[in-house]
Amino acid sequence: MASLPQSSAIKGAKVLMVGAGGIGCELLKTLALSGFQDIHIIDMDTIEVSNLNRQFLFRQSHVGQSKAKVARDAVLRFRPHISITPYHANVKGSNFNVDFFKQFNVVLNGLDNLDARRHVNRLCLAAEVPLVESGTTGFLGQVTVHLKGKTECYECQPKPAPKTYPVCTITSTPSKFVHCIVWAKDLLFAKLFGDKNQGNDLNVRSSDASESSKHAEDVFERRENEDIEQYGRRIYDHVFGYNIELALSNEETWKNRNRPRPIFSKDGLPEKLQQNGKTDKSCATDDPLSVSAMGSLGLKNPQDIWSLSENSRVFLEALRLFFMSREKEIGHLSFDKDDQLAVEFVTAAANIRATSFGIPLHSLFEAKGIAGNIVHAVATTNAVIAGLIVIEAIKVLEKDTDNYRMTYCLEHPSKKMLLMPVEPFEPNRSCCVCSESPLSLEINTHRSKLRDFVEKIVKAKLGMSSPLIMRGSALLYEVGDDLDEDMIANYNNNLEKVLSELPSSVTGGTVLTVEDLQQEFTCNIHIKHREEFDEEKEPDGMVLVGWTQAPVEKGDSKSVRNGESTSKASSTEAQQEVLDEEISEGSDISGKKRKQPECSADKTMDTNTKSKVQRHDVDVDADEDDLVEVDHWTASDG
Hints:
The chain is of the alpha/beta class. The chain has helices spanning 4-11, 22-33, 67-76, 98-102, 114-127, 167-171, 177-193, 209-216, 228-248, 265-268, 279-283, 293-297, 308-325, 340-356, 364-371, 379-397, 450-459, 485-495, 569-584, 607-614, and strands spanning 14-18, 38-42, 83-87, 106-109, 131-137, 140-146, 406-414, 417-422, 439-443, 467-471, 474-478, 511-516, 521-529, 542-545. The strands form two sheets. It has an eight-stranded mixed sheet with strand order 3-2-1-4-5-6-7-8, with helices on both faces. A six-stranded mixed sheet has the order 11-10-12-13-9-14. Helix 7 (177-193) crosses helix 14, helix 9 (228-248) crosses helix 13 (308-325) and helix 13 (308-325) runs antiparallel to helix 14.
């Protein structure tokens, strides 16, 4: 029970929750039961079947409805006299500006992605409203408190970068099953069912590029009057047979590697497939996402590991069903982990490729987890983290600054503790967001266009939604609903110009001011001209210096974001080692603050250690419960 002063602070507080997923459901319930009277919730998502095993405020009948609205209705049934205001909307919408945030005493985050979390962080800084961040993945969790000028903001420390793999590894020399999944999902699936205009090279590299191009010409296009099975076998033979033979022709590649085995359709299939009696029935459904090659072929257990023959049959049957029941979608599809047929196709294709390269096969259940970046949520962790959020929120409302804590929930005890409290760190003086430190950008000003700068730096790295770019008093680019057609045309024209040829030329030594009016966030970027960049290490063709982004890990070690899979003990053990070091440096079990040296706070711990201590980085309780990022994989909310 809260004390009387706390009860007074709680009852008079106006609280904003952002996110109504796994953490959000637990948090709303805990807030209501703790005596909070005025709660607002923002969530743009609707309820899915996969949410029901842990988002306990929702039921089967709620599928397809707004999470925020259903959560409100569910809680009002047992706390009818409190006020809960739901917003079924994107927190990045123009209605949720700084003035909107200023009306709240505290903001509680339960978001599922870095972009939205950065956005809320900046709005809270601009509105000078305290923010309590949170995240869970499996048994791991965290709660952190952020107050402008007193503690570091959410962006003060590096975030683990998405894991990427070299293209040549994916296309030519896979050594892990995840490489096969990325190939099947991002290359083969996209080539067959996605946007035909996007560049996509499925051909493994060979010493004879002309031969490769000649053979590949129109191979993925279905010929007029071509039988769907013939088409499927032709695709199969090309990607699993011919491409592998072509790769083997480059002897140099395989001097120190195991040679792959070409696989053709005749190797794993009879000359003519027998159609299962369930096939027609499997196409007759109102929900295209439920069409199933497994159902058509009588395969029932998603945890079974299929043989080469079974994988081959699933591959061809999934391809057939896409053309039979979802032909209108072909050319516009992208992989969706909730699309049963897409998961079946990717699993089968990845397993056939894995067979070729001597990589252990995986079940559909396992492949879906890898393809969708899934680590399964633990409802208890969500409940623990929600309770900790409310504890910190009460401290914030009571202005009990000395007792603020960042708290980590561990999978295995460290110093006999599963909950590890650490006093918040001071603001990072080099943070471009809360300390307004300038950045520098190395870029070829004679080759890079303004569009490159906007997309790769302003939006992708700085997370601005409505940017305004100025050189001195000259406005180079702006986004807004109040722009007239001539202004829009002028800015669009600027986007296609290289930096040095803009009306107000941008060259080495130029300082650009970039601002997001909605976030009320401004930063200055010093431009440094640079002629050449390493395509492998610097694929963007530009390098932003001073921005707190963690480096991409090399090799195949995965960075942890939104919780490394709990089946991988190493991530948890590494985190606990860091936390053990943290305790030994001064934080006892009561969470007392380590004494920081008088030099820069950044030297208290090296950047990598500090980032591991402060965040896993779990991007909130993982809904499906997306985690380790491979290339552009994303997380979902809890």
